[in-house]
Amino acid sequence: MNAQAPTRAIKVALVGASGYGNLYLQRLCDRRMMGEAKLVAAVDIRPPHETSLELLKANGSLLLSSLEHCFDFGQIDLVVLANPIHLHARDSILALWHGAHVLCEKPAAGSSVDFNAMVDASREVGRWISVGFQWSFSQAMSRCRAFLATRRMGRPLFGRARVYWPRPVSYYTRNSWAGRLRSADGRQVNDSPVSNATAHYLQALFSLVSAATLQPVEVDTVAAMLWRAFDIETFDSTAASITTKDGVRITFCTTHASECEVGPDLELCFENGVLKYTKGEGLQALCDGECLVFGDPEYEDPMQKLHHCLEAVSAGTLPLSPIDETRAHVEVVERLSSLPVEMWPQSNIAVREVPGCGKFLTARGMEETLDEVFESSFRL
User: Fold this and answer.
1) How many CB atoms within 10 Å of residue 42?
2) What is the pTM of this model?
3) pLDDT at residue 292, as a whole number
């Protein structure tokens, strides 16, 4: 927990107490949070697990069916959104207009239209939205970004990332919107590894490029090969090539249909050096013959984002990972959603059972295909 607690407990509403939201629930109900935050209410249309109900009761927190009802119990300072992607805009804007700041889980929104509506509302009411890309709140990334801002590395030229995370078949049946282009009521979702599970690492590249150029990333072109092995609407695997308006070329390779877990591996080439991330070794810069180590964001507390936002509310300061800095990510996801998706040959899809984890699909040859794109991405 943070050593510097706010001068008063920040009043919080949590939307989405199940799934990933349960991590927020556990932290907000931790007794060590007393004085830092008070969870007024959790909102969930599904009954939370019995353990979660006990936590809420012990904490004196309400369980409500809608965010709007939370504001009947007084001022809410911070609304934490861990709800479905297509509801981020609706609930963010509602929270803002009730005078609350917002910590919204990634991605910020399912479409540029929703994203722009969130940004406009934030500016109009003078409240901020921070997007929960957890690397963006890490000390390692802060140190690295500060170094890049000195311009010692020069101009960024190329970037790449590789993240292969196998997911069970149940991953796409856990809710009604996983792997969907739109929700049942027609709202854009555009769920994929790029927008969801491995989104942190594409956003990390954008964040590092932004730090080095001292301006937000603007997307110029997006091209990609998209595949699906699972029975979904969107895609579960891609080799994407993104070019920024500053001419930085970024390659992003990711899949949920690999046999093995690989990465995350990140690399950025600059005029005067190379920045690399390898899990377990951390972020390292090789510049002018010197090796600088910034730490490993993957092993830092993922709930730093919550503590940081609580401190920002208390101090009246702007948070890290403001929504404006995540525009490029939303734009890339939206552009990918308009590209054709190729079915991976059924004859090359293997089904395997992992004890305790369920059934997995392996797209044979996928890892080799993505590896080839990744390894060749820095060739001129």
Assistant:
1) 31
2) 0.94
3) 96
